[in-house]
């Protein structure tokens, strides 16, 4: 017997996404600009992607970052989980701090990449759900002193 679901076809599709806030040794964060032709094209984002069946969030973040940017990372502490509904899509973003381990980031699946300071994040235009990530980062780092 199939499991009961409360979802109907009128709801937008739901994607569960692992997201990495990647730090370098200079306390800068890696962001990338989405390709113009896709959904939310041209906006900046924290890199990550959809979790595949049988994959942990940490494995997803490592795989996606390697595929998108060609770098090796260590996935560290969980920062925040965000549920957000756009008109065309529902997303659950599971966000972890990450540390660059190896390689030089390359824009393999995006238009551009940048290392930026936490204070400079507000100069870039992100998808709506990402504003909660930035707020969580500022709150967490503010609490550290």
Automatic annotation (TrEMBL):
It is an enzyme of class 3 (hydrolase). Its EC number is 3.6.1.55. GO terms for molecular function: 8-oxo-7,8-dihydrodeoxyguanosine triphosphate pyrophosphatase activity; 8-oxo-7,8-dihydroguanosine triphosphate pyrophosphatase activity; 8-oxo-dGDP phosphatase activity; 8-oxo-GDP phosphatase activity; metal ion binding. 8-oxo-dGTP binds at residues 34, 45-48, 130. Residues 12-140 form the Nudix hydrolase domain. Its cofactor is Mg(2+). Mg(2+) binds at residues 48, 68. GO terms for biological process: DNA repair; DNA replication. Pfam families: NUDIX_4. It comes from the Bacteria. Keywords: DNA damage, DNA repair, DNA replication, Hydrolase, Magnesium, Metal-binding, Mutator protein. It catalyses: 8-oxo-dGTP + H2O = 8-oxo-dGMP + diphosphate + H(+). InterPro entries: Mutator_MutT, MutT-like, MutY_C, Nudix_hydrolase, NUDIX_hydrolase-like_dom_sf, NUDIX_hydrolase_CS, NUDIX_hydrolase_dom. Belongs to the Nudix hydrolase family. PANTHER family: 8-OXO-DGTP DIPHOSPHATASE, NUDIX HYDROLASE FAMILY PROTEIN. This is 8-oxo-dGTP diphosphatase.
